[in-house]
Amino acid sequence: MEFSEKLKDLRKNKGITQEELAKKIFVSRSVIAKYENGLSMPTKENAEKIAVFFGVKLNYLIDEEEQIKMTLTEIKIRKTISYIISIIGIIINSFYLIICLIPIFSKLVYIYPIPEGANKPLIKYEHNSIISATLINNNPLGIIVLILNIIDLILIINFLITTKHKKISLILEFLSIVILIINIFLIILAFIFAASYAL
Fold first, then answer.
1. CA angle 100–105–107, rounded 5-degree value
2. Which residue, 80, 143, 170, 173, has most beta carbons within 10 Å?
3. In this structure, are residues 183 and 151 in contact, taking their beta carbons and an 8 Å threshold?
4. Contact 184, 92 (CB under 8 A)
5. Which residues of 134-163 are buried (b: 16+ CB within 10 A; e: fewer)?
6. Is the pTM of this model over 0.90?
């Protein structure tokens, strides 16, 4: 008997609806319906909740073959999420690497001393990138973010390439996510500082 049939039998024997079971294990009714119709397998966490709720052992509820399928599904989902986060990291870091060097801020500068015969100083426009705007104002944030971006890109690329060594791969993934989160905050700060210096 498959998991879907066992779940349906356990639920009917207990005399509860799909909605009631869903509330007990904190999922939606449609999730229970999918489990019972064999359209999806539960996560290990949900399977354990169901087993505890019905007072049965997990290996009764889900046989070895189904547990393998469940584990493979969870691994696939985790890999997909990691891949998506990596792509987002590459896009954000690459975007900053490009934009930090392009002069996107303009500033009106008055040139002193006032030339002879003129009644006001000469005016020129300075065009600055994020890095130049922060460095001109003795703020190293633009360079710090640039260095962190390069480090994060290297970590992400190594994480995507390193698939044989799971421990190293997990460490690289963790470090790249932490640096990416810090980077997003610092990119916003660097942009704000550069824009304020241009005013």
1. 145
2. 173
3. no
4. yes
5. bbeeebebbeebbebbeebbebbeebbebe
6. no
Residues of the chain with pLDDT > 70, as a percent, come to: 97
Output phi, psi for 120, to 5 deg.
-150, 160
Say whether the peptide bond before residue 113 is cis (omega within 30 degrees of 0): yes
Q: Which tokens in the block code for residue 139? A: 């703020």
More confident residue, 17 or 1: 17
Give the tens place of pLDDT for each residue, 40-72. Answer: 888 888 888 999 999 998 888 887 777 777 777
Long-range interactions of 161-168: CB distance < 8 A, separation 24+: none
pLDDT at 85 over 70: yes
